[in-house]
Amino acid sequence: MSSVLQPAAADQHPPAAATYRPVSSHLAIAPPVSVVIPAMNEAENLPYVFKTLPDWIHEVVLVDGNSTDDTVQVARELWPGVKVVEQRGKGKGDALITGFQACTGDIIVMVDADGSADGNEILSYVSALVSGADFAKGSRFANGGGTDDMTFIRKLGNWALCTAVNRKFGARYTDLCYGYNAFWRHCLDKIDLDCTGFEVETLMNIRVVKAGLKVQEIPSHEYLRIHGTSNLRAVRDGLRVLRVILQERSNRRALRRRSPQSPMVDAMRGEVS
């Protein structure tokens, strides 16, 4: 599924069957990496987003949510090979699903367009995946992570929702509602995303656990949005997240009634590492 090796010496060449991309002085990879950036009127923030993206990325997919500013033009100037995809629906979930469908890389990384994410952290995400994880989940509350952009109320809400998911689905998450994640593209076939709003990250986190995929949390630091205002609404979107949790729990119970599983299978499906 993945390939990792030390970079070749000057008089050596990688196997003809694969082109290895130097990721760091200690790591090179064969799997191409796609970065998906959903954006709507983020022209002022994109320079901060793109300047931290590693140059070894295979492709950048910008999903434009019908921007009225120069978002698309700025993206093309900053990253000439950027793949621009027009979003036909509405909402962050819809934008991400649209972007995922346009990706050609084996690894997909989700990055917000507001300048809050450090693209240099992509190395940690990719390293976790090529080392055996299926889903690399960013966490602001794991040891080494942090956030400059959460009020006490939002932190409390995130903790409560995260605790609910851990108890109901057997996960061991330290963060729930965070949009910086990476995964192997084949995971999309197992989680079958079908939501349109900000609750998409929660849905992904729940379904990777239900699918029995191996998850590794990556400490991540969330910075303040640089320009503009967020479309996130704590109460409204918090209720949408709660609704997703309840729906997924209800669906799981219905599935168990139809197809009883042994305790061992249930335990395997709930494992998160």
From TrEMBL:
Region called Disordered, residue ranges: 253-273
Domain Glycosyltransferase 2-like residues, every copy: 34-156
CDD domains: DPM_DPG-synthase_like (cd04179)
Pfam family, one: Glycos_transf_2
Family stated for the protein in its record: Belongs to the glycosyltransferase 2 family.
Protein's UniProt name: Glycosyltransferase 2-like domain-containing protein
Species of origin: Streptomyces djakartensis
